[in-house]
Structure of Long-chain-fatty-acid--CoA ligase:
Amino acid sequence: MAFAWYKSYPAGIPHEIGAVEHYSMIDYFDHYSLVYNEAIAVDNMGVTMTFADVHRQATYFAAYLQHIGLRKGDHIAIQLPNLLQFPIAYFGAIKAGLVVVPTNPLYTAREMEFQFYDAQVKAVVILSTVAKNLETILPRTGIKHVIVTRMGDRLGVIKGTLVNFVVKYSKKLEPDYAIAGAVRFNDALKIGSRSPYQKPAVHINDLVVLQYTGGTTGTPKGAMLSHRNLLAQAQQMKDWLFPAMKGKGKDVVITALPLYHVYSLMINLLVGYCCGSKNILITNPRDIPKFVQELKKHKFTVISGVNSLYNALLNHPDFASVDFSELRIAGAGAMALQEVVATRWKEVTGNTIIQGYGLSENSGGLCANPVAGPIKNDTVGLPLPSTELGIFDESGQPLPQGETGEICARGPQVMSGYWNHDNDDVFFEGNWFRTGDVGVMDEDGYFRIVDRKKDMIVVSGLKVFPSEVENVIASHPKVLEVGVIGVPDAQCGEAVKVFIVKREPSLTNDEIIAHCRQNLAPYKIPKQIVFVAALPKTAVGKILRRELREVEAV
């Protein structure tokens, strides 16, 4: 079928990806590790690992996981920032036949408990700085095996010892914890190096990742992604991006977005792996001065980010002195790209930011602007190869070009459903997936996001659902009622704003913030707090967030 967007495809981009080239993510990892072997795969804090290094250590980790009794299909959470340990743990878990549950290390104990319990996690790889949180909730999770790593564990003896000392004693980021039976990551690798590894019998349709997302209802859910989903998405993104890349193992990719996020995991790590790219892992991109210093060390060809990250870089006085002579691709996703940021980026770097669109439910990418063709950055681009997007009305009927409706998708990268949930409302006839986003397609096949179907707030590309924030704030004894909305924010795209009816007149802003810090990740904490006498409600008592937004807009 000839879709409208095909006419806008640059020459050489296939309409379909055809059959995937590998039978599983294990084969994918093994194959490209051998192809690029002695090339540098990852660089973190100046310490590098070749593709052969990553493969060897991932195999040790896989052998360790099998040694402790984990079996094909068991679930393992990886709760790490961008460190050398991440690709070792991620690929090692996959080689052991496990299902990976990527988890945000910024999560509070409450958030960790929900995800670990819901995902039926049996093992976890966790950073020592948040191990204390795990200690408090461990008995209620079902986790049997805990592997703890420190920030500097894979940085060598001298640098690693120094980094661990600074984290523990200078910055005081590592509270003492006591978890019976916890094993050090480095010790796990040593045990694995002496243990046999048995390649599991994996089918291409087997589950390989549970990628948690808020979904379209606000309840955190695990998107079930198979080996086929990830392999297809990697091929789609490679076909789309490769025309602008150097290829043949010559690309240097800046990986600042966290690898536990599907966007970074797919674009940077997995696509980078099949292209032989060198991934520069940025552990703390919020430290902009150090981030800029790191950028100055590399002639990078690819960088992925979100609007707020690009904006922060542009506002640093030394950013303009970075060498952009080799930059080929700057990708943006997860949140809307502001025109002023796109314009300034072009002025400073000489490179145009390529905006795309995707969800955890579709392995990260549905469409993107071409890297070698007409760019419309007021849109999220064209559907990727083998991807079909449509605009539908509330009854599931397709709408003609130019009309606004819900964006629905189907393709080999789209999940099979949400873990342990009723999926009747997620898909409809024809296996169309409901994205929950409202959009429109123009005459050239480019899609534009108009609005969100639900009340989701996007803070620096991370999803925040009002109901979760409301539930946390409502649990404060001095709060009577609360309503939460998102408001425009120059730094983060959107920020959380709360309207509170007091139960006790003595309630203060500081008390609310302190309560939120105990129960919410930092990006979910309100930036604005307003105390009101009453909240607008429906006849049955449901708070009308729509009216709160209307009041905010006045």
Notes: The chain has 15 helices and 26 strands. The domain at 457-553 is CATH 3.30.300.30 (GMP Synthetase; Chain A, domain 3). The two ends are 47 Å apart (CA to CA).
